[in-house]
Write a structure and sequence with these properties.
The protein is elongated and about 130 Å long. The model is unreliable at 15-23 and 606-610 (pLDDT under 50). It has a 30-stranded mixed sheet that branches. The longest helix is centred in the first third of the chain and has 22 residues, at 2-23. By secondary structure, the protein is of the alpha+beta class. Helix 1 (2-23) packs across helix 2, helix 4 packs antiparallel against helix 5 (132-138) and helix 10 (479-486) packs antiparallel against helix 11 (490-496). A hairpin with a 4-residue loop joins strand 8 (159-174) and strand 9 (179-187). It starts with a helix and ends in a 20-residue tail after the last helix.
Length: 610
């Protein structure tokens, strides 16, 4: 009996509390509008009057709801609004919203205009820190906002960005209490999940520090941050950041960023301690894994007069350089000649870059270098690469190359290299798969070229190269043996020269490049029993050699003998199919039996007209 009485009293109380709203839709609508406007600072309008329902919780429903700020910068149109009501205030005749659910809201935000919405958040932001006003605004009650099947379009600088199929919730009970935003949405064809948490939103809105946590998860990327942040006028963040991406290029495209990265940048992961503000983003204690390479160091991005400036200092135990050249144009075409495909160099003028990398070991294909320092500088679209120091093949290596755009989509290249006491046999094997020459190699190379294709670059090649070899060997030829047999069996010695090897005490050569052709200057080699001189040229444009070599008898130190024997041969053909061929007339002339087969040399009268 007692429970029946209590239930009857409760029903009477609810009915009494609901009476004003049941019989006065206008009053209910005005009360609902007043609370929404006070909380958001937005104008509110709807097509009809609210409908009241008691189950499963007391709530009011509005159809065709529109929110807008004073400048029209933010407009939200929703098919329905469900306002969840608190029960106890309702029993006393007051309308107190505990939460709002928007069904199919369509929001438009124009960031080129100023959003003018003097709601609770704006009032908290305008309050002076540690004031009575701040304390009052921080105590303002909000609630929970949920969104079902929403959409957002943002316009900025003429560009438009869209998020579709938004499902989310903002749990923010009071201005001064923690706020949690969770949601999922479609962005540029990918489903992303967002979480953001602010420990002290009131302080945060007034520009004071607050602990924050944020995470963005998708199939393409994952980003997270946990630290302390402030808003304007001293907007900044300090704390941990981390992320990963299956492809950095695809991840950047989600934000409409197209960066000409050196390589695929796949399987990327990073973590760092970050200090971010409006002008600079500094990453300390940076750990990066990308394309199978691991780096540690620091990276800073600065905004210098509206232009990004990126500087990084990194180190690595081992670096595979091959992925960094994955997008480089093919050097050789299907026909085995230099490629005629347009180079189409990327536009590198969007930022300035300074990169310094120290690698204990680095590899490009089979080429290995140790204790290397690599530097990259990008200024006004011109790329400068340098290897100021490295250990390689028991010697030292230095290199430098610069690339800048040329006319008609071409490229201008300047390159220099220097080797000191490098093991030539090991170097040539790793670089070209050949072991033709061994010894300690010291060299310099300076090249300049320009063109719109690789073929054009080789045709326009100019520069200079010097080579010096000591304590070495030439594989596949035995000059000393061939010269010993040349006098007695000259024709047989032509075969002897194609086998064995020749010890080289010292050798040197100078090449002068012009229009893709390198002309040999002062090329000579000396070894036990022979002295070798070479003339001719190397045609880089046609990938061929045309050299004539003369081997003379020499003593054990390689000093040519007076009136010593001399044999001449040609080294010619394409780079892929070189032929070592003795000069037939020289060998036949040396053979007494075969000499009569040669034609008589022209006499003094042969050049006169009859």
């Amino acid at each position: 009996m007692r429970w029946i009485v209590l239930a009857f009293v409760a029903v009477i109380g609810i009915a009494a509390g609901l009476a004003p709203w049941l019989y006065s839709p206008t009053v209910a609508k005005s009360a609902l509008y007043a609370q929404l406007q006070n909380a958001t600072g937005l104008y509110v309008a709807a097509r009809g009057y609210p409908r009241l329902a008691l189950t499963p919780r007391p709530h009011m429903t509005l159809e065709g709801v529109v929110f807008a700020d004073r400048n029209g910068a933010l407009v939200i149109e929703a098919e329905q609004l469900h306002g969840v009501l608190k029960l106890l205030p309702l029993l006393t005749g007051r309308l107190d919203i505990d939460g709002v659910a928007l069904v199919r809201p369509r929001a438009r935000l124009d960031l080129d205009r100023t959003v003018d919405a003097p709601g609770a958040a704006a009032r908290a932001a305008a309050a002076k820190p540690a004031s009575v006003e701040a304390q009052t605004t921080d105590g303002f009650r909000l609630g929970v906002l949920t969104i079902t099947d929403g959409a957002l379009r943002v316009r900025r600088g003429g560009a438009e960005y869209a998020a579709e199929k938004i499902e989310g919730a903002l749990d923010w009970r009071k201005i001064g209490e923690p706020a949690l935003l969770t949601g999922v949405f479609d962005w540029r064809g990918e489903r992303l999940q967002l979480l953001a948490w602010i420990a002290r939103p009131g302080l945060f809105l007034r520009g004071d520090p607050s602990v924050v946590t944020a995470r963005l998860d998708g199939e393409t990327l994952r980003l997270e941050a946990q630290g302390v942040a402030q808003t304007l006028p001293r907007a900044q963040y300090a704390g941990r950041v981390a992320g990963s991406a299956a492809s950095v290029r695809e991840a950047l495209r989600l934000f409409n960023i197209d960066v000409p990265l050196p390589g695929p940048f796949s399987g990327a992961q990073f973590s760092a301690q970050a200090a971010l503000n409006a002008r600079e983003a500094a990453l300390k204690d940076l750990h990066v894994l990308v394309d199978g390479n691991a780096f540690d160091g620091e990276l800073t991005v600065r905004n210098e007069d509206g232009r990004p400036n990126v500087s990084a200092t990194l180190k690595s135990e081992f670096v595979a350089l091959k992925p960094m050249f994955a997008d480089a144009p093919a050097l050789v075409g299907p026909d085995g000649q230099w490629s005629h495909e347009p180079l189409e160099p990327p536009d590198l003028g969007g930022a300035d870059v300074d990169l310094w990398l120290a690698a204990a070991h680095a590899r490009l294909g089979r080429l290995m270098i140790d204790d290397a320092v690599l530097a990259a500088t990008l200024r006004d679209g011109a790329l400068d690469l340098s290897l100021p120091e490295a250990q390689a093949y028991r010697g030292r290596l230095k290199a430098h190359a610069s690339f800048k755009p040329a006319g008609d989509g071409g490229l201008a290249v300047h390159a220099t290299t220097q080797t000191t006491n490098v093991d030539a046999r090991a170097f040539l094997w790793d670089a070209f798969g050949k072991e033709a020459v061994g010894g300690s190699l010291t060299s310099t190379l300076t090249l300049d070229a320009s063109g719109a294709t690789i073929a054009d670059l080789t045709k326009n090649l100019s520069g200079r190269a010097t080579l010096a070899l000591k304590d070495g060997e030439i594989a596949g030829v035995d000059f000393e043996r061939a010269l010993r047999r040349f006098e007695k069996r000259p024709l047989a010695s032509a075969q002897d020269i194609r086998s064995g090897s020749s010890t080289v005490d010292r050798a040197s050569a100078t090449l002068l490049f012009e229009n893709g052709v390198g002309a040999l200057q002062e090329a000579a080699a000396y070894g036990p029993g022979f002295a070798l001189s070479l003339t001719g040229d190397a045609n880089f444009a046609e990938r061929s050699l045309a050299l004539k070599a003369a081997a003379r008898e020499a003593d054990g130190a390689g000093k040519p003998r007076e009136k010593g024997l001399q044999m001449v041969f040609d080294l010619a053909g394409s780079w892929d199919d070189l032929t070592l061929a003795p000069d037939p007339q020289a060998f036949i002339r040396r053979s007494g039996a075969a000499a009569p087969l040669l034609p008589e040399p022209p006499g003094p009268e042969s050049g006169r007209a009859n």
